[in-house]
Amino acid sequence: SYPYGTTAAHLLGYVGPITRTEWQARNQLIDPDDPDAKTYQLNHEIGKTGVELIFEDELRGVPGTRFIEVDASRKVVREYDYVPPVPGNDVWLSIDLDLQALAEQELTTGLAAARSRTPQEGAPPNVAAAGSVVAIDPRNGDLLAMASFPTYEPADFVNGITATQFRELTSEDNFSPILNRAIQGTYAPGSTFKLITALAALQEGVLGDAGLRRPTDLYLDTGTYTYSNCFEESSTCLFSSPYTGGGRQVDLPASLRVSSDTYFYEIAGEGFWTRSSAPDEDGLRPDEGIQLWARQLGLGSDSGLQVPYERSGAVPDRDYYDRQFDAGVFAVDGSQWFAGATINLSIGQGELLVTPLQLANAYATFGNGGALHQPNVAVRVTDPDGEMVREFGPRVLRDLEIPEEFQAPIEEGLLGATMDTGGTATRVFGQADFNVWNWPVAGKTGTAEVDLKADTSLFAAYGPVYRPGSAVAPDTVPEVALSVVMEESGFGSASAAPVAAAIFEHLATDTVPVARSLNETARYALGLIDDDGQTATGEGVNG
User: What is the pLDDT of residue 541?
Assistant: First the structure.
């Protein structure tokens, strides 16, 4: 049963009647002489997606057996033996149910708000029918929440659904409710990717004493950037940005605070592309440093989360072009990777694709100082008596050990984006009902262009973060990293950032509402329990 209805539907998955193919595959792995074997019959149910599928072997018990004697007419004469069923194990998840419900609620509210917003003249309408929120604990990689909208009712699958119903759940016309956008939706990250470009520039020496400029040096952002030979020889490209103010001086922190595109265009063009492009002894190309650090932070490969069907996204480079060309997807190969592609990549556009989970985990990794965790949804497995069967601890895939002198200017810019004058999310976080100085959030807005559709709205962040003058201690490690991705919803500052701010507000003030089961929701609607789940007699009601 699913007592909380659609809450965490994509994460939990669903069970349904076993197919003959599944029945044959499962029973081939079973020893028929093993009395404890978890056998399957064609009238059984089986996990199909999500946790239900991945932990099918743990959750499934051993069927009971009743031995009977029948006569020639198949009438039961007697029962001479009975082996009772053995319950399956319990899988304990890292999900914070209250935070999960809050994330789903705020995502739904945010999408509705985006739909009601009038787009700029000539821009496509904000369809805003789909999106995702992911929350990760940067300290250990635990998945705290994974919301995907639109959603579905997992209980509908228990007795099987019709082909028509399944088509409705998978139809793009209905925005594919069954799709887990947190791990299966892939999106250009837009300006949320600037964190990675900035880190790559510092790590590879593009920004530094011997590089293009130092992080504290000022750059004149005029709103446009021109590069020669950008896609082929003798071609010149003009890269523009939403900024049309005529000129502003920005250093690295300010470029993140106000989201200066041209600052990052020049890092990619003059910084990375103009360097020697000959591969080193490890086959790495100096002009592909952005891609290197994108992969170091977990992009371009699946995260290893214990939920099936995760997509890996794409970090484009010459090899990627070659693979796509060989597969017949691209019309050009890696020899056609030019400066313009790297420049687009620097601000999270082009063929770059990430999942909301990857984006949240990249920010979690940067926020904790460089430990890339394999996200974890299962905490432990216990048997029916409560005894430990298996425990899942933090799993660090790699430790980047980001130097403080690299982390500090980037984090200053991310904090400025939510707290300082001119920050792309300062207005939104300033309207929240909590003092951001008591719980500073380091974040970045993103607005990614999509052909013939409204922009994808993004926001990625982590908190709380120490900042001089704040109520947070200097050695604080962020507790939550968050990504919000909203399809066809416009600017990141207008749509995704408010969703994130609302979630952080509840976290900062310890006011995350308690999630109600379907039973509790019905009782509350009838006035049988109050906001705290108490009856008129003051006694709690179990879900």
Answer: 43
